[in-house]
Amino acid sequence: MGRLVIVSNRVPAVRDRAQPAGGLAVALRDAVQGQECLWFGWSGQQIPDDEGEDRRVSIDTVDNVTYATVDLTKSEYNGFYEGYSNGILWPLCHYRAGLMNYSRQDRHTYHAVNTMFAQKLAPLLKSDDLIWVHDYHLFPLGLALRELGIKCRIGFFLHIPFPPWSLMRALPGAEKLMRSLRAYDVMGVQTEDDARNVNEGFSVVGVPAQARVFPIGIDPESFQQQASSGLDNPEVQKLEKSLRGLPLIIGVDRMDYSKGLPERFRAYEVFLRKYPEYRGKVIYLQITPVSRGSVPEYKVLREELDGVVGHINGTYGDFDWVPIRYLTHPVPRELLAPFFRLSRAALVTPLRDGMNLVAKEYVAAQDKEDPGVLILSRFAGAAPEMEDALLVNPHDADEVADALHKSLSMSLSERQVRWKRLQPDVWRVTAGSWARSFITALAEVRSE
To answer: What percent of the chain clears pLDDT 90, i.e. is strictly above it?
Structure first.
């Protein structure tokens, strides 16, 4: 097999390259070990518009991986990243077409940046490379590479959901975007629902290609070890002491309207109203780092969340108890893992999610002798694999409230049985197995 070429919107920052810290970098860690790899994408830097013509690709090598990055101009960042990728494709793919803020100029910039990426990447490629393109920012990149004469095998993986054609067609130019995906030899998605939706769109526009399901996972062994060893961390001990022996409910989500946070907070208020015996007797910690803070919809969301938290704490709190401990700054993974282990229940209730690896991390972090309970949205991509969680509809506040009560009153034996049924799938479908299965499928394209 030739060299693996990974293309993503962002390339891991220099500080994260030896020990990747988040998201895609963690998921691909196993894929890039032990073979020659080129990782190409945006540097994370913005440059003045008048410097765009002269920009160069920066090259940096760490062990067996060569990182190749290119800057974006301020106009490209605004149109490609904030405008089209996150202002149009993100809400549409999460079934929120009403939040799209369409601009033809942003659409033009989106395609222009994909073309620029192809032009900068093409000279770096070798004839036997396997090219693996990631996520919605780069839907048209495969076609842009084909138009430059690149004949390598090219695969694409979508980490977020894909909507049914009845929603997708609301996007101006949806047919052209769908047809551009024909350039990929393999297209992977997270769930059967996503594959069905992609293939429905393909059939409408006359594309014979078929999306395939490659569910993503985590590295459960290392996360479990981190959860166990992290209990000795002074910060973790500080949290445990502050609980005063009360059960901990935890939620960890990036601040995004797809995560269902206003609905979750209101469900928690219903829980306190419906089950008053828990007032002052349970701790709820919600960790929600701010993201895309300059996007108007996210500013509105933060204001809404601040208001709901203030209302709940003001209504139900007491001088020695706060109903919701609410953080809007990141917490390191080395603390999150033992936080999960300390908790009696986790709320993972997105309105729509590609997979949601927090659900799998929570299961991996548990002490098998005294495990917590996962409360999981039916609309998370992980739900079909995790039927022994307490599955809920996040739009139904009473159902979520009842699940919280059930999790806190559940017997130890039932908690153990549920965890034992969840554990095998978390260990079977890992980040490493996901990467290997996709790369194998791409490598076999020619032989088929």
So the answer is: 89
DSSP-assigned states of every residue in 131-148: EEEESGGGTTHHHHHHHT
DSSP-based three-state secondary structure for 305: helix
- At 198-228, the pLDDT tens digits run 999 999 999 987 999 999 999 999 999 999 9
Choice among 71, 159, 185, 425 that is catalytic: 159
Closest among 447, 443, 392 to 128, alpha carbons compared: 443
Helices (H), 162-279: 165-168, 174-180, 192-205, 220-229, 234-243, 261-274
353 is catalytic: yes
Dmax (CA) for the chain in angstroms is 69
For residues 27, 383, 287, 308, the Cα torsion angle rounded to the nearest 10 degrees is 150
Reading the block at residue 129, the tokens are: 């490379």
Contact criterion met (CB below 8 Å) for 231 and 341: yes
Query: For the chain, how many residues are written?
Result: 448
195/201 Cα distance (integer angstroms): 10
Query: Going from the N-terminus, what domains does the chain have, and what CATH number goes with each?
Result: 4-217+431-443 (3.40.50.2000), 220-428 (3.40.50.2000)
Using a 10 angstrom Cβ sphere, with 0-12 exposed, 13-18 middle and 19 or more buried, the burial of residue 220 is buried
pTM: 0.94
Name the active-site residue from 135, 353, 402, 425: 353
Residue with tokens 């990426």: 117
The per-residue pLDDT for range 380-409, each reduced to its tens digit, is: 999 999 999 999 999 999 999 999 999 999
- The answer to whether 159 is a known catalytic residue is yes
* 239, 286 Cβ separation under 8 angstroms: no
Q: 288 is written with which tokens?
A: 């929600």
Rounded Cα–Cα distance for residues 341 and 365 (Å):
5
- Bridge-based pairing of strands 211-213 and 248-252 is unpaired
**Dist CA 262 CA 212 (whole Å):** 33
What is the token pair recorded at 296?
């108007």
